[in-house]
Amino acid sequence: MSKAFPSIGRRRALQGSAAGAVVLGLLLWWLLPLGEQPPAGTVTFSTGTLRGVYQEYGVRLRTAFAKDMPGLKVRLLTSDGSQENVTRVATGKADFTIAAADAVETYEQDNGPGAGRLRGVARLYDDYVQLVVARDSSIKSVSDLRGKRVAIGPPESGVRLIAERVLKAAGIDPAKDVRPRADGIDTGPGRLRQGAIDAFFWSGGLPTDGLKQLASKFSFRFVPIEADLVSRLHAEGGATRYYRATNMPESAYPGIQHGETVPTIAVSNLLMTREDMDPRLTEWVTRAVIKSRDRIGAHVHSAQLVDLRTAIYTDPLILHEGARRYYRSVKP
Fold it and tell me: How far apart are CA 263 and CA 131, in angstroms?
């Protein structure tokens, strides 16, 4: 009798192993296309300025891609921001990027080279316009920027695009009525702290590390961008239709806002590529973006807002065929 127990134990162990293999197989089937080998090769991803959300998101996405596609090498390029990102993908200098919807629409309206080849992969999260001044500054509104030293972002950034539009809506000529500076989130906080500028515009996800770091060293506040300015922007038509009036939540920078919301403007961000990008690779990239939301969101708060239900709305871009395949595969 005692000799029978080991054989039963072995049999149960084998049955347990088989059951575990089935469960693992089902899990892999759910996560990855059955029987497919992950895409391999090299792609270039254009991100943004240092200390900005695009840059950090790009770094985290590269790690996520490596988990699902270990044979895929992702080369990251820093950039001025949305405008440069759109141009790089459209002209083949980058394969994937993140850009604000207004910058994409502007590039298309201007008939930029390769504009017709641009395709959407996923709607990600919203950028919030953040107009920053020292806490003791006399600047209380956008119109108070007249005659001031104002950082409006690098020339090819999405910040520059939206900052110039906001200033014009307030009746301020960006070239004549302020002393414009080209600082972005990488240099703007430091220059404000040093007193080298009076204000700077930033458009990014909440919270942005560059501003979190500034808050630990320097007392600043946000200048409200009121809804009437958004109405004036909408009256211009075109790419301004992507701007929406909103409030920056009090939880964005608790030590700065002290429980108060800030009226401002939001615009959606899009993950994008070109029409000629391999559909199979794009499908895998789309899957990795959606699947890694919570993991990336633990470090980049904006990533928590990526939602499968809204990711397909990449207006003004039509979806890339590979992205479309993924969304169809997970449709209930």
Answer: 11
**Tokens 């006399």 belong to which residue?**
138
Structure tokens at 23: 């469960």
pLDDT in tens, 73-127: 999 999 999 999 999 999 999 999 999 999 999 999 999 999 999 999 999 999 9
Q: Is 201 helix (H, G, I), strand (E, B) or coil?
A: strand
* Per-position b or e across 162-179, b if 16+ CB within 10 A of its CB: bbbbbbbbbebebeebbe
Longest dimension (CA), the chain: 98
Residue 300, token pair as written in the block: 């980049």
- Which residue in this structure is represented by tokens 């162990």? 13
Residue 29 burial (CB count, 10 A): 11
CB 124 within 8 Å of CB 155: no
pTM over 0.85: yes
